[in-house]
Write a structure and sequence with these properties.
- 43% of the residues are buried.
- The chain is an all-alpha fold.
- It has two domains: 152 residues, Serine Threonine Protein Phosphatase 5, Tetratricopeptide repeat (Alpha Horseshoe); 198 residues, no CATH class.
- It is built from 22 helices and no strands.
- α14 runs antiparallel to α15.
- The longest helix is centred in the N-terminal third of the chain and has 23 residues.
- It holds the Pfam family Ank_2.
- Keywords: ANK repeat, Repeat.
Length: 415
């Protein structure tokens, strides 16, 4: 008897045959792998296709197959299968059974592996954690289970991707998850891969993500549109393409997108960049674009015009200008160098991070909090952004409602 019979039974999801083979001597092969096969426990978890099932019959068949996978997994573990076995054929290479349960959105198998003592600290060859795989595959039940463990929040892959990198690939699906991983302690400033998160969140209208990133110390950056904008329809007539020679700020994106409430939030906490200070109010392309929207009857654009007029006629305080200058200097190395094609993790990471740099400054804590935009207004409810005063010195009460935690993201566009 050789191991091929066991693999065939697993791939056919033949529970009874797997049990018979393990009782008759195939247990000796239970942790064996070869150049052509992963360990049986990995083979079991990869038996189901990575597909979205929409038809009712497909859902029933998938549920039946998931039950068989779960039963086979139990049998394999009972007979001594290594719950921390590593794959060398399937993606992610070097991944453990936890990674493959997450990849196949199998929360029941994931729960079983966790309860059986599977090691969450083991990553794939490229540095992927089970939570990263779950986020990448939109395995939301698996994400919830893994977030409860709270391990590996600040893990980074070899190419510099973090949990935030994976979650932000699909903002609309991961708003609440982004808020959760930030609350659990993820430092959003540790990888250059994540430099575009606020620009993307502003462009897509995900206010809960904006608020969470700001409250966790993400700095205001100026970026080229290619670094964050991914809607290439009518590209050459697009305002962002016409501004392609400039690095623009999150506030500028809010103004261009006619998002006055987001703009008010940024202004109230002085979330400014160099672009905001020296160019935003006087850039002819931006002014013309917002004016055109206003003439077409867009009330939000009219409010943005009023904001631009206010900023152009109200000088910022010396304190604000100094904080912007310091922030620009400290966040300079967070910018990803487009010429770097090495893929070296060391070139993607910021050591020390922006937050660590601020913490090391010999400044009063009040100024350090201001540099991190942790002001009295930064934690205010997103439902009240429209009422925020844009002059300096506003105060508010920190909020933890369902909107601010990203739990009701479908309504975000109405705020």
């Amino acid at each position: 008897m050789d191991s091929s019979e066991l693999y065939i039974a697993i791939n056919n999801l033949d529970v009874d045959q797997v049990k018979r083979l393990l009782k008759s001597g195939s247990a000796t092969y239970i942790n064996k792998s070869s150049s052509e096969r992963d360990p049986p426990i990995i083979d079991c978890l990869t038996s189901l296709p990575l597909l979205d099932t929409t038809e009712e019959d497909d859902e029933k068949n998938t549920k039946c197959d998931e039950d068989k996978v779960y039963e086979i997994l139990n049998v394999l573990v009972q007979h001594g299968a290594d719950i921390n076995a590593r794959s060398h054929l399937s993606w992610p290479e070097g991944g453990t059974p936890l990674c493959f349960a997450a990849a196949h959105r199998d929360s029941r198998c994931l729960q079983f592996l966790l309860e059986s003592g599977a090691d969450l600290s083991i990553t794939s060859d490229e540095g992927y954690t089970p939570l990263m795989v779950a986020l990448d595959n939109r395995s939301f039940e698996c994400v919830t289970l893994l977030l409860e463990k709270g391990d590996g929040i600040n893990a980074v892959t070899k190419n510099g991707n973090t949990l935030l990198s994976f979650a932000s690939l699909s903002f609309v699906y991961n708003v609440s998850n982004i808020c959760k991983i930030l609350h659990l302690g993820l430092d959003p400033t540790m990888s250059r891969r994540d430099q575009n998160c606020i620009h993307s969140a502003v462009s897509d209208g995900h206010v809960a993500v904006i608020r969470a990133l700001v409250n966790k110390g993400f700095p205001a950056l100026d970026l080229h549109y290619e670094e964050w904008y991914d809607d290439y329809e009518d590209l050459y007539s697009n305002i962002f393409y016409r501004l392609r020679h400039l690095r623009i700020s999150p506030l500028a994106v809010a103004i261009i997108n006619a998002s006055p409430n987001v703009a008010k939030y940024f202004i109230s906490i002085r979330f400014f960049t160099r672009f905001d200070i020296v160019r935003l109010c006087w850039d002819p392309e931006i002014s013309r674009h917002v004016l055109d929207l206003s003439k077409k009857g867009c009330t939000a654009a009219t409010q943005c015009l009023d904001i631009l007029r206010y900023l152009s006629t109200t000088p910022q305080s010396l304190r604000t200008l100094c904080l912007v200058a310091i922030s620009c200097t400290l966040s300079k190395d967070l910018m990803l160098d487009d010429s770097d094609t090495s893929g070296n993790e060391e070139n993607r990471l910021c050591k020390p991070t922006f937050k660590e740099k601020v913490a090391s400054l010999e400044l009063p804590n009040l100024l350090k909090r201001a540099l991190l935009h942790q002001t009295p207004a930064s934690g205010c409810c997103i439902c009240s952004w429209r009422y925020l005063p844009i002059q300096e010195g506003g105060t508010s009460v920190e909020c933890h409602c369902k909107y601010c935690e990203g739990e009701d993201y479908e309504d975000e566009y109405e705020i």
